[in-house]
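INTERNAL AUDIT FORM
Audit reference: QA-55
Scope: verify that the stored structure record matches its stored sequence.
Auditor: D.O.
Record contents follow.
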Amino acid sequence: MSDNNIAERVRGTIYQASLCLDEARWEDWLGLCHDEFYYAIRAFSPEINVDMTYLDGKRADMVTLTEMLPKHNSDHSPLARHTVVYTVDVDEAQQTASAVSSFTVMKTELDGINSHLLAGESNVFLVGKYRDQFRIESGTPLFSERIVQLDTRRLDKGSHWPI
């Protein structure tokens, strides 16, 4: 399989992951991840000159987290990701790939209660980059690592789900 074909499949996997996360289809999202998947959400703080970690875990931790999400007191306002894949680098010999994508997450308020926003109003919720690593198995890219590097450093209530 050519590098271009694998790169297109990697892009497709990244976009499919965005749809799964938008629609809270956690099992489908995890189905795109390798058994040894690692996931972290970080943001650099210039005030303390260090990366802050909001979430960090392996695939098993993400399974537990997503199984618990329906039991959490969460903001159920819908999220919509706009993801743009910047680069995909394929190492065909190693059957791996890496990618960098930019994302913006929009949030549409359901009720506007306890918020300065009105019901139905949409706003930018998060901005950042995905730094992804993939393993290619039988031509299928699976996430082996996703580092979510946020530009946004102030997270709202009920934001304890994968981004």
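Auditor finding: record pair retrieved intact. The domain at 3-150 is CATH 3.10.450.50 (Nuclear Transport Factor 2; Chain: A,).
Action required: none
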